[in-house]
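Worked Example 4.2. Consider the chain below.
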Amino acid sequence: MYYGYGIIRANSIQVEALKVGLNQESPCLIVEGELGMICAKIEDDLMASATRESMSLYTEVLCQVIKHTTIVPLRFGTLFDKEEEIHEVLKKDKKQYLRFLANLDNKIEVELKVWWKKESFQETMMKNKRLGRWKKALERGEGQGYDVVEFGKAIMEVADYERKQIEKSFLAMLRPLATEWVVKDPMDEFQAFDGVYLVERQKEADFDQAVGILYEKYSATMIFKYTGPWAPHHFVN
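Applying the procedure from the previous section yields the following structure tokens:
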């Protein structure tokens, strides 16, 4: 079988130069006209299982490729039974892949995740006067059990409002420096923002600087996780 990493312009990279871990099959390039698919020959589908090792290898190969050329990344775990299937895929959707490659040229994906620190989350929520009064009433033992449930729902509503305000602030700073962007839903109650951006390479330093300004502004109350560059997973279908 063949494990697919992504689609590039034919001969735009020396695949032999890509380094992989010990006992891992080196990637190969299957070419069909103007396009090529970076793959690895495998004996079984263990590589497509979502283990830490397999996902790390998948990410490692793509991160090496984007240093040299533009790639349309395939979804993790994409397998082909034989080489002929890959040729068929590249032929069938040739125009679509060429459009993707043109749109992604000289661009990288970066992601910014931000969480409230636990104490900051509580302080931010309690700035809401209604929640503040409600909390004091519950602490005095006033109200029934359902009041606690409703109080929790009210906190989530305020948190959603605060997220929207943070999103406006972050996008105002970062959107002018990105070609495209996606704002993702929060993973947990403490996550305030999760944005993915497609950034031109010549603007990468400016984007980093903008993230630094946001960090200086919010780091006392929030935890930042800024990662990349990645292959542009969020900007291809």
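The beta strands are 2-9, 28-32, 35-41, 72-73, 79-80, 107-116, 180-183, 191-200, 222-230. The helical segments are 52-65, 83-92, 94-104, 118-126, 129-139, 145-174, 204-218. Compare this with Example 4.1 before moving on.
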